[in-house]
Amino acid sequence: MSDRIICDCMGTSFEDIKKAVEAGAKTVDDIKEATEAGTICCGCDAEIEEALNEIL
User: Fold this and answer.
1) How far, in Å, CA of 32 to CA of 1, rounded?
2) CA end-to-end span of the chain
3) In the 8-state DSSP scheme, what is residue 39?
4) Torsion from C-alpha of 46, 36, 30, 49, nearest 10 degrees
5) Between 12 and which of 3, 7, 8, 39 could a Cys-Cys bridge form, CB atoms 3.0 to 4.6 Å apart?
6) Other Cβ atoms closer than 10 A to 54
7) Are 48 and 32 in contact (CB under 8 A)?
8) Per-residue pLDDT reduced to its tens digit, 18-40
9) Contact (CB, 8 A) for 14 and 6
10) How far apart, in whole angstroms, are the C-alpha atoms of residue 56 and residue 41?
11) Residue 56: how many CA atoms within 13 Å on its side-chain side?
12) pLDDT at 2
């Protein structure tokens, strides 16, 4: 499911992460900087990494 929400705090979706990767993001920290996902409670870091691995 490509429209799933990865970060509930920021409302960041899988598609948002995919767009960040297309713009050059390569690491979880890059994704956090580009989307602000994982910057409030850090509870979704593993989900960000999983999404990143699916995309790359």
Assistant:
1) 21
2) 16
3) S
4) 10
5) 7
6) 12
7) yes
8) 999 999 999 999 999 999 999 99
9) yes
10) 25
11) 16
12) 62
